[in-house]
Amino acid sequence: MVYDTVNIVVGGEAGQGLVTIGQILAKSLVRSGYSIVVTQSYQSRIRGGHNTFAIRASAHNISAPQEVIDLLVALDANTVKLHRQELAPQGLIMADEASGVSDEACMNVPLKQLASDRYVNVAALGVVSEVLGLKEEVVAGSLRDLFGKGDPTAVKENREALRFGFQWGREHALTNVELTPISDAPAPERMMLNGNEAIALGAISAGLKFYSFYPMTPSTSIGLSLASWAQQMGLIVEQAEDEIAAINMALGASFAGAPSMVATSGGGFALMVEGVSLAAMTETPVVIVVAQRPAPATGLPTRTEQGDLEFVLHAGHGEFPRAIFAPGSVEECFELTGKAFALADKYQGPIFLLTDQFLADSYRAVAPFELGRVSALRPGAAEGVAVSVPYGRYAVTDSGVSPRLLPGLTEHLVVADSDEHTEDGHITEDLSVRVEMVNKRLRKGDGIRSETVPPQWQGDDKPDLLIVCWGSSKGSVLEAAATLKSEGTQVATLHFSQVWPLVPEQFLGRLEEARTVVCVESNATGQLAGLIHRETGFRIEHPVHRYDGLPITPEYVLRVLRQ
Fold first, then answer.
1. Quick one: which H or E segment has residue 256?
2. CATH of the domain at 491
3. Which tens digit of pLDDT belongs to each residue from 203-246?
4. Confidence (pTM)
5. What residue spans of 300-367 are helical by DSSP H?
6. Residues near 561 by Cβ (< 8 Å), separated by ≥ 6?
7. 176 plus 281 within the same structural domain
8. CA 374 – CA 555 distance, rounded (Å)
9. At residue 181, what are phi and psi to the nearest 5 degrees?
10. Residue 416 sits in which domain range?
11. 8 Å CB contact between 555 and 505
C-alpha cells in the first residue's frame, strides 16, 4: 500500500542506536524530497529505559506529529508491547527475529545474520529504507555524512551493513507502507534542523558573540550547537558552574559590547531571576531562552509542556518592560531569535524566547533562510546620536532609551550601578530621581509594544469555531482545523508567536466575532487564555489542555473538541 503520509516509529532502549537510525532516515527522507516532522521521546537516563524516535513523512508539507503508527521499527520486544495498540490496521512491525516477537503484522528480519551487533541498527536502517522505497545511494550519502570521518574500518562495515539491509529488504520485505514516490525532478534544497539548532543559527545571524550556559534538558543542544561552530564563527561559548554564573557572565559580556544569550529550562531559570532584574536595572541587553518542560521542581525532565509563561512574564523583582516570543515552527525559531536580539539591543534589557522539549528536539525540512533580511548587531550608540558631556549612561529621554557607549571604546566614562542611580550612573537615594528613572525605564515598554508581532490568523471570517494557540502547538492546531473545515465546519485559527506584550487591537475583534472560541495549551491552567482575559476582559470559555508530558497532536485536539 502506498501512503501519502507515513508515520515511522523507531523504538528501543537508550544505547541501542535508535537516534542514529532516526537521524539518518530523516535526513534521507528530506534529501529525497519529503517533508518531515520528528518527535523524540526519551527517558531521563543514559542507558536503558524506553525511547522512541518518530518520523512523520509526507510528499506534501506537514507541520504536526501523528499518533497512529504505520511502520513500527522495534529494536527490542518491549517496543511492540508498548506500541502495538497504536499500529494502523494495515501497519507493519519490523523486528529482529531473535527478539521473539510473534505478531501477524510483524516482519521478522534476521538482523544478526546481516551484521555484527555493533552494526545491527544500520542493517535495520537498510531494511526500513527499502520498505519505504528510498534509494540506497541517498541513504548511503546520509550515512557517510554521519560516519564518513571516522575509523575507515567502521565506515566500511557500516556501509556493508546498510547494503545487506537493502538487499534483504528487496528479497523479502513487504511494501504495504511504501511512501508516495517523489517525482524524478531534483529535490528542493532544504536543511534538516530542529528548533534548538534554528535558535542557535538565529543567534549567530543576529551577531551573537558570547553564550554561557549550564546544561539543562531540553535547552542543552543550543549550547552544543554553538560550541561546535564557535571557532568558525568567532564565538565564545562558556559552560558555567551554575545558572547564576551563566546569566551574570552574559551580562558582563553584554556590558562590554558582546551580544549575549543564555538558555535554560524552568528550574535553571529560577536561579537566573535575580540576574533578570539586574539586566533591567543596568539596562543591559540579553536574550534568555527558556525551553519548557513539565514542573514543578525536576518534574518530567525529558518531556514537554507550556507551563512557564506566567513565570517568565513575572520573573524578576520590580517593574520593568520585557518581550516574550514563542515560536511555533523551526523557521520561527530562527526569525524570532533574531528579532529578540534586535529588541534587546534597541531597548537595552532582557528579552525572552519560550520554546519547549517538543519543538527543541523536533527536526523539520526547512528551506534555506533568507539571510539578506538579517543584519548583525553593532552595539553602542548609533552614529549621529548626540552624547551629552559629561556622558550620562542613563540619560532621561522621551523614548526611555539612553545613548549606550561601550566602556573603554571612547573617551567617555561609562558608569553602571545595580542600585537606583542618577543619569551618570552613580548611586542615589534622591526619591525624585527614583521616580524619574522608573518612568524612564517603563517608557521603553511603549516602544517594545509598538513592535509586537501580531498573532497569525488563518481561516474563515466570523467563524463558528476559532481555535487560539501559542508556541509549538501551531502545526497541530492548523491540521486539526483543516480536518474540521473538510467536514464542513466554519473554522479559523489564531496563533500567538509573541505572547507579551499583548496588543488587544491586533486580535480582540477576531475573538468577539467568533461564535465559539477555544484555546489550546500544553498546560493545566490555561495560562495564555488567562492572560488574554486579564488584558482584554474577553474570557475564553472552552479550553483544550494537555499536561501529561506528550506533545499536542491534531488527533488530541479533535478528540477533545468532539467530546
1. none
2. 3.40.50.920
3. 999 999 999 999 999 999 999 999 999 999 999 999 999 999 99
4. 0.96
5. 309-314, 330-347, 357-361
6. 465, 480, 484, 518, 544
7. no
8. 37
9. -65, 140
10. 380-451
11. no
